[in-house]
Design goal:
about 375 residues, Alpha-Beta Plaits, homodimer, BirA Bifunctional Protein, domain 2, 16 strands, about 35% helix, alpha+beta
Chain lengths: ~375, ~375
Amino acid sequence: MVQVSVSMARPLDDMTLEDVARILGRSFAVEGVVNGPDGMTATVRDDVSYDHLRQAVVKVLRVARHLTEECVFSHEPTDWQGSDAQLALEAAGDVQRLGPGLFAFGGSFLTVRGALDTLLLGIAARHGAKELAYPPLWPIPVLRDINYFHDFPQLAMVAAGVETDFTSRSRFSEAHRRGSGSTAIACTAENGLAPAVNALAPTVCDCCYWLLRDRRDVADQVFTIHGHVFRNEASDEGSLDRLSAFTMREIVTVGTEAFVLARRQVLLEDMKQLAQLLGLRCTIEAADDPFFCNDALQKNLLQTAAQLKYELRVVLFGNREIAVGSLNLHNDYFSKSYDYTTRDGARPFSGCFAIGCERLTYALFCRYGLDLEQWPQPVRSVLRLG
Amino acid sequence: MVQVSVSMARPLDDMTLEDVARILGRSFAVEGVVNGPDGMTATVRDDVSYDHLRQAVVKVLRVARHLTEECVFSHEPTDWQGSDAQLALEAAGDVQRLGPGLFAFGGSFLTVRGALDTLLLGIAARHGAKELAYPPLWPIPVLRDINYFHDFPQLAMVAAGVETDFTSRSRFSEAHRRGSGSTAIACTAENGLAPAVNALAPTVCDCCYWLLRDRRDVADQVFTIHGHVFRNEASDEGSLDRLSAFTMREIVTVGTEAFVLARRQVLLEDMKQLAQLLGLRCTIEAADDPFFCNDALQKNLLQTAAQLKYELRVVLFGNREIAVGSLNLHNDYFSKSYDYTTRDGARPFSGCFAIGCERLTYALFCRYGLDLEQWPQPVRSVLRLG
């Protein structure tokens, strides 16, 4: 347990305290963040040096005090009601837990998830999007060159197989055979795992930009991709709203600044309309990515100051609220990282509209219950459920 | 380089020599397998003891000499022609290489892959299959309990994230930042990777059986699943026919022996009809899984003797032939492994019909070329291409 206090001219407001705890939580096991006699006091359970923690806390404070919660859209259905649908979905067998952060899906859950994707494909088609598919594994350089491992070490996952020699494979084979009781495979020499040359995809769009690397003729274009994405995290409570592996549909724009900004406005309207059609109680507001508490953290300031990220936040039930989608503007981050330009030498901009398919599906079940027949006709129609 | 010779009453025929080389190649870097003055001589590039190699070679010999190539179906279209479509697909941008064994798909490749899946879903629907979806990551015990790590260490892959402490994450963050030149992340202490609690799915059906574990009321049932699967291998030549990550559609049957065997017969007919409708030059023949050269190897004998596995093998062009699908009978392997029974205490049987979606798609492009408009009308109709 390590504790750091930072003296303050006046106590922090509750929202800032919450922000500090949330941001610090990306990198540390936070015990508490409170206003105290010595100023703001943060306590973590990590075995970390005082100096390390102090440095991080000072950075986080600077970021947290400048985050603005700009809300650009709010939808409050008059007849709204919501309750947690997870237990009922599990009882029906439509959602089955495989392990922490991992679920199998079937029945009505799969029906709605598929219907939502068809709806999103319709939006993509109106933008003339070209459909692409990527594998869930990407070569390490794809993520290295956009600094993903540096900015999000807490979320990254790599894929490793056993070395090719007979001795390593035989040893692995014996160590993890049936009856061995193995529940985890240590990344140490005795398991003979070869260096990982691929990482698990953290999102679906990065390959779009990577495939443009070194090109000098990038024109305005729109892509759409559906795929599996992975995060090294899971809900402690086994909830459906934080998964280690989930699916995502994205609509991606690449091109001149004017093109990407104009599309972004239309995609923001698309997002509002989607929320309204589905009858969600929600907001669309400025947000920031969960950057790690090193120098990457400063990017949060840039993100919110420039409103680079909006999140579609949905109330599930009570005061439980989750982000089910986001609208991101990357400026020229990817074209600089992967070195591609337009024909006239300019750095293309890019942006994406992303929906977390399981979260949005879960939100609909919390809103309307398990019996699809009883869902309001307008919602059934928009999802083509009949 | 290690060499082992085994004396023989008479030289092995060419097919058996090939089988020995193929099976040995699952576990060793094989330099050559030939008939020589001292009998059959196998040479491998691995740094392995003579005794180890000799033991493995004797086992492989025993297996190889008993493999039978029983062919239950053969389809030879009269007007057949085929040529490698990969370069043309890449030139059109419909297939883009991301790295060894990893490709991005778009355009007509994605159109055909989707159309094939719709066709397979139709077959599944005729069997009354219930659709399920699994994440591409599975908890280690799912594979441990069916002895996957023991039987296929050469194919297994695990997913690892960084330890939760700040020090490990900071170090990882610095080591693999942009400009670091990292192309691989070693599974050693300095990268701070936590023990892997999940493995990458090697197939799509195992979770079906795992979710039945400990149940005492398993009834006859049919499932269908589409998902991403992973193998720790890649084509040396960067060919589309051996991928590290690909998609698979399966139709899975679970129930009494009579139910599973009867469904298997129908699924075999479905597979024949599929091959005919698509105009493939192909065979359906007895096959065996690539078991590792330890005691798992003996399972090959059991498989072929009992005809537990049939493969749909398609000629792409010249004498290049690949397996695009398989029909597997597991007997009660899964119900014993995961301990589930029917209501009357019997061990359910299971079986599956599996199609490798990218391989079958690739086979169609080799057969009919890139221009979908020019494909024969019957094939276009069955794929609903218009």
